[in-house]
Amino acid sequence: MSSRIENQQISETIQVHGLISGASIGTWQEDYPLTALDFEHIKNGKPVTFNWANSILLATLGFGFNVLGKGATTLAGVEQQIYVGEWIALGAGVAISIALYFVGLALPNDRKRVMKEIKEHFNTAPKHRQVVPGENE
Amino acid sequence: MTYTRNNLPSSYQPYEKLTICSNSLIGGGHVVELAGALPLIIGYGEKPQVWLQAISNPEKMEFVSVVENSVSKFPAVEVKEIDGSIIITIQGKQVLKVRNVSNSEAVVENMDLRPIGLNLYGDANNMNIPNGSFSGNSMSGGGVLLGLGG
């Protein structure tokens, strides 16, 4: 339909094409003002001792599998000596990684702080619903 | 809950004559119906009682009520009463101005339903629809003036 309808007596509903413009109601929440410093903190803010603890723990784990292999050989009937030094090395590896982990917990953790701030922001920032105009407008 | 012709608001009382952008609806009609829903309902009251339902999902034809009994349901929607007229604005844009003429008559002097998802707007003299316009027409018997074409 493309017309002007004037001064008519209308008795039936007039069907119109393209009535819907596609506006919609959306939920909106204030975004978190992430600064470059915050981003740096998220990227590099973890205490470096966590990484050390991680590396040493993995190395210790690898060594532990070596000891496990010897133990398994013994169980299979071929005597394999596990030296006391090997147990000490294993224990020391675990102890050092745990110690470094706790040192990391005690050090200031910027990443954790920023993450907590972001979480708090999204928990507390009020939500609004608002009309978003459609394409045809 | 969506308001339809069979499910009108309980406090809705039709005007005997409702003029929308120069087009008269006699005997309690409505200006537009979409998939059974009535996006705009204007009823009688000490001040005109307006219900507005915005299209929240055009694909599924879902509606959300933004004004009920001339009371806003959203912070972005403002309903004001000035000298017996109800004026509704959405984000600063006037969507509806309806004036109480008498107990049985009200006049819509300004309407722009585009912010709630409908290509329908007009002033006191003319109502624009996609590819056309309406003015000075009248409809009797409580029908619906415009429907959604296929």
Question: Care to give the gist of this entry?
Answer:
The complex is a heterodimer of chains A (137) and B (150). Chain A has four helices and five strands, in the order ββββααααβ.
Strand and helix layout:
The complex is a heterodimer of chains A (137) and B (150).
Chain A lengths: L2 E4 L2 E2 L3 E3 L7 E6 L6 H9 L3 H28 L8 H23 L3 H15 L2 E6 L5
Antiparallel strand pairs in A: 4-5
Helix pairs in contact in A: 1-4, 2-3
Chain B lengths: L16 E4 L2 E4 L3 E4 L6 E4 L5 E9 L4 E7 L2 E2 L4 E6 L2 E6 L2 E10 L2 E8 L8 E3 L3 E3 L2 E4 L2 E3 L3 E5 L2
Parallel strand pairs in B: 1-11, 2-15, 3-16
Antiparallel strand pairs in B: 1-2, 4-5, 5-6, 6-7, 8-9, 9-10, 10-11, 11-12, 12-13, 13-14
Assembly category: heterodimer
Low-pLDDT stretches of chain A: none
Largest interface: A-B, 33 and 44 residues
Helical fraction of chain A: 40-55%
Notable traits:
heterodimer; A: 137 residues; two-stranded antiparallel ribbon; 5 strands; B: mainly beta; 4-stranded antiparallel sheet
Could you explain how this protein is built, in words?
The complex is a heterodimer of chains A (137) and B (150). With 137 residues, chain A is α+β, with helices and mostly antiparallel strands. Chain A has helices at residues 36-44, 48-75, 84-106, 110-124; strands spanning 3-6, 9-10, 14-16, 24-29, 127-132. Chain A has a two-stranded antiparallel ribbon with strand order 4-5. In chain A, α1 packs across α4 (110-124) and α2 packs antiparallel against α3 (84-106). The model of chain A has no long low-confidence stretch (mean pLDDT 86). Chain B has 150 residues and is mainly β. Chain B is built from no helices and 16 strands. The interface between A and B is large, with 33 and 44 residues. β3 (14-16) of chain A pairs parallel with β16 (144-148) of chain B, so a sheet runs across the interface.
